[in-house]
């Protein structure tokens, strides 16, 4: 994935990156929502924003994304598209990382 | 005869059961090669190994003049290989248009609309794979290969579940791809359609492969006739 947004290389990768960004974002929202519900039942803070919680959320989001991709049997498509595993994992992790940073920023703003 | 991709002396076992002992697959530029064999002899396993989808216990994959000790579909795809599995090439999560566009944009491929029109499924673009019939889906998957414009196409049972008339059309498209210079290897049991179009026949049996040559010669191979073709060759008049 060489070059900034808008270069021919980036444009070539964008359609599948976009698809896996959306999947990563969906998994992150689902992971955070489930964690928040469980935390509410346990009388804990619903949206913890510590570094450990953020890391956990990113790891769980990526794991959910990988499981979803395996469940949908997309490995042949991913292989034929010559998607590097690092790029694939990165595309799933990016929305979770951005989401966690946003939560942190919102929490800091509210303080 | 330029060999684009070769899986050489491949051995593979599953749970202690030896499926392949020393089998080879060769994809040659400009040739449509057909691999025939009874169920369970390892045709799909061999084609998966050649495509880098599974690792062999022994043997090696050569592609584009280079040895790939740990061949992966990703690495081979970058060298122009396209693998059409017997099912599940396309994801139900995205529309056909989106997936074909992914392939086109990734590899500067052919026109998406023209490819589906050529395969006789022009109305599928905005649908998802689970909304298609088996035949429509198979033709759409061949359209994906057309969009990719590969130098080597490995297709596992591309005619499965396809009526004879549509099978002829698909084989015609695969023959055209070979005529345009691609190396095409396909498996299947649709003997009539496959032998009509094949440039070369490989017989997979007892864990190994035999290069039988052009169909006219292959169908004269006594053991191949007896163990695979059965009475079909008599009815076909070959």
Task: Please tag this protein with its features.
heterodimer, A: 111 residues, mainly alpha, B: 238 residues, alpha/beta, Rossmann fold, 2 domains, six-stranded mixed β-sheet, four-stranded antiparallel β-sheet, 37% helix, globular
Description:
- The complex is a heterodimer of chains A (about 110) and B (about 240).
- Chain A has about 110 residues and is mostly helical.
- Chain A has one domain (about 10-110).
- Chain A is about 80% helix and about 0% strand.
- Chain A has 4 helices and no strands.
- In chain A, α2 runs antiparallel to α4 (about 85-110).
- Chain B is an alpha/beta fold and about 240 residues long.
- Chain B folds into 2 domains: about 5-80 and about 150-230, 3-Layer(aba) Sandwich (Rossmann fold); about 90-145, no CATH class.
- Chain B contains 10 helices and 10 strands.
- Chain B has helices spanning about 45-50, 75-80, 95-105, 110-120, 135-150, 165-180, 190-195, 215-220, 220-230, 230-235, and strands at about 5-15, 15-30, 30-35, 60-65, 65-70, 80-85, 150-155, 185, 200-205, 210-215.
- In chain B, the strands form 2 sheets. In chain B, strands 6-7-8-3-9-10 form a 6-stranded mixed β-sheet, sandwiched between helices. Chain B has a 4-stranded antiparallel β-sheet with strand order 2-1-4-5.
- In chain B, about 50% of the residues are buried.
- At the A-B interface, α1 and α3 of A face α2 and α3 of B.
């Amino acid at each position: 994935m060489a070059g900034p947004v808008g270069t021919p290389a980036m444009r070539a990768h964008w359609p599948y990156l976009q698809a896996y960004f959306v999947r990563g974002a969906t998994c992150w929202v689902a992971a955070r929502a489930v964690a928040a519900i469980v935390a509410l039942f346990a009388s804990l803070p619903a949206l913890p924003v510590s570094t450990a919680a953020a890391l956990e959320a990113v790891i769980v989001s990526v794991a959910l994304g990988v499981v979803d991709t395996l469940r949908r049997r997309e490995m042949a498509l991913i292989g034929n598209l010559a998607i590097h595993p690092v790029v694939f994992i990165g595309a799933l992790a990016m929305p979770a990382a951005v989401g966690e940073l946003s939560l942190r920023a919102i929490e800091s703003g509210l303080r | 005869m330029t060999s684009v991709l070769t899986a050489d002396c491949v051995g593979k076992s599953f749970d202690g059961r030896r499926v392949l002992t020393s089998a080879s697959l060769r994809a040659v530029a400009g040739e449509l090669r057909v691999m025939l064999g009874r169920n369970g002899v390892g045709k799909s396993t061999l084609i998966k190994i050649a495509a880098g989808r599974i690792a062999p216990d022994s043997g090696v994959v050569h592609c584009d003049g280079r040895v790939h000790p740990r061949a992966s579909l990703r690495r081979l795809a970058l060298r122009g290989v396209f693998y059409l599995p017997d099912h599940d090439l396309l994801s139900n999560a995205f529309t056909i248009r989106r997936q074909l566009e992914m392939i086109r944009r990734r590899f500067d491929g052919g026109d998406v609309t023209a490819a589906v029109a050529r395969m006789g499924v022009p109305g599928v673009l905005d649908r998802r794979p689970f909304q298609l019939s088996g035949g429509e889906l198979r033709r759409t998957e061949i359209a994906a290969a057309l969009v990719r414009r590969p130098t080597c196409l490995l297709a596992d049972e591309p005619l499965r579940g396809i009526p004879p008339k549509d099978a002829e059309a698909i084989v015609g498209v695969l023959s055209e791809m070979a005529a345009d210079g691609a190396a095409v290897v396909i498996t299947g049991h649709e003997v009539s359609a496959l032998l009509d179009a094949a440039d070369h026949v490989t017989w997979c049996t007892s864990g190994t492969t035999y290069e039988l040559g052009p169909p006219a010669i292959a169908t004269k191979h006594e053991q191949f006739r007896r163990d695979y073709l059965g009475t079909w060759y008599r009815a076909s008049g070959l």
